[in-house]
Amino acid sequence: MTGYGLASFEDDTFILSVEVKTLNSKFLDLSIRSPKQFSDKEQEIRNMVSAVLERGKVNVSIDFSRKVGEDLPVGFNVSLFSSYYHKYLEMSNLVGADSKDLFKIALQSPNVMTQVTEKTSAAEEWEVVKKYLNIALINCDGFRRDEGNVLEKKFKENLSVLRSGLASISKEDPIRKERIRLRIRNNFKEWLEENDFDKNRFEQELIYYFEKVDITEEIVRLSTHLDYFEKNLKEGTNQGKKLGFISQEIGREINTIGSKANDANIQKHVIVMKDELEKIKEQGLNII
């Protein structure tokens, strides 16, 4: 389920911004971008995220910068620089070369400048980061819940269309059965009068045929699946996978009704129901 959360803080010493983005995923796939001074806190960040956001592709971005910085991000080996410079100057004077770029050359010489690793975050700074990370996570979760409420409303509309189609099929089914009986009676009436046959065996074959085209059980099961889907829709979290399985069963019953009924009027309703079910399956991927 998509989501977005942002929390920021600023005082006289530093500026903090925490951003959380989520996309659809069956599992928790977490990516963290944070300053080096918080690199030792990655596992704690992961624990905080998993406690609030159970599933999804999650990107956490933490931006932290101090307003006043006395320490330089690089270090200088002054004595080594001096040695380089005077040596280059001596060589320059020896050959009579121009010495105006010696300062730049000496500064860029090996080991004169070194990268300074940022200090580990102070405890009070990390507590502030934790606080606003939690706020961002809660905001993101709230975003997802709002989206979930919209999805629930849409699911109920889809279920209403499916129930309407099922009701229409239930009305069409007795008419379909009567058409089948009349067709068999008219087609075989003359043949039955002119030919000798085993009436018991013929009745058995008719019963078997009517059982093959009967969709009563499928209608009952489909109605049960729709009720069960709506029931789970109203229950707590972690219903995404279960609703996905129920959707598969609903699709199986709709397909069976379409193949067994072999009726043009019922097929019209089946097509509409299949289209509506695809909408449910597509949106179902957004449910945690």
Can you give me a brief rundown of this structure?
This protein has 288 residues and is of the alpha+beta class. It contains 8 helices and 6 strands, in the order E-E-E-H-E-E-H-H-E-H-H-H-H-H. It folds into 3 domains: 3-70 and 122-144, 2-Layer Sandwich (Ribosomal Protein S5, domain 2); 74-115, no CATH class; 148-284, no CATH class.
Main beta sheet: 4 strands, mixed
Derived from helix and strand composition plus strand pairing, the structural class reads alpha+beta
Order of helices and strands: EEEHEEHHEHHHHH
- What form results from the Cα inertia axes? elongated
Keywords: Endonuclease, Hydrolase, Nuclease
Domain Endoribonuclease YicC-like N-terminal: 1-152
Organism: Belliella baltica (strain DSM 15883 / CIP 108006 / LMG 21964 / BA134)
Domain Endoribonuclease YicC-like C-terminal: 170-287
